[in-house]
User: Fold this.
Amino acid sequence: MPEADDNEAKNFFVDVPQQAEAFQLKGSQSLDWGMKNRLARIFNPVSGRTVMLAFDHGYFQGPTTGLERIDITILPLAPYADTLMLTRGILRSIVPPSSQKAVVLRVTGGASILKELSNEEIAVDIEDAIRLNVCAMAVQVFIGGEYEKQSIGNMTRMIDLGTRYGIPTLAVTAVGKDMKRDARYFRLATRLCAELGAHYLKTYYVPEGFETVTAACPVPIVIAGGKKIAELDALTMAYRAIQEGAAGVDMGRNIFQAEAPLAMIQAVRAVVHQNEKPEKALELYRSLKNKQK
Ligand code: 5RP
Assistant:
């Protein structure tokens, strides 16, 4: 028999409509709770942006400079990242399971730098992604590449599987051999992946017309850092990308190959989350670097 419950009417706040917080991330309003919750662990709900620390390069090029000993060089950077982007091999062997960081797991692979890079397959079972409690799965897509169709198929398959379990898919647009890295190419690549259901995109920054890439893409775009360049140039690139509509960075070499990686990731954070200007962020980099000496 139910317990007699004499709550006063005032406890029900009958005149107060139930609160419904809007989910602000671009293009994500209609997603389910689990998807949104995972995306909110990647994209800081206050700034709407993310600093993803990318160190998955070994999956096709082996121990890249700066990634020879991930336990020593990368783990100390993790507290300053919003998200770790990596492979399951490194996650299981090196990242402590007590880590609270959102994980974006590389789920395609199968080609090395010695062969045709676009010849990738799905390399992780969805069940393993669930087991590893990841916040998103990253799939390489080679628009214009030799195995374009196969890589798009990898992406749509993971989107379907991820949707079943509430795990978002990040489409990583790799540059095809004969395609120019310009806004026109990235508009095509990002829009195509978004139309096919990718929840967010990784692309490269281009100095001309990047704002048209972000405008035409209905979901968030983060930029890869690319090859190591001078610290000021990397901070300027990140700043411009953010001001032109990017929702963050997925940066690897320009952080872990910097002279002072701990200082660099904090400078990148300031640009991404606080709109810090590149010159100011460089000052921050230099002062943190001096303190670490
Ligand atoms: C490797 C990747 C990297 O995660 C991506 O390129 C970001 O790293 P970087 O800033 O060094 O370019 O996708 O395949």
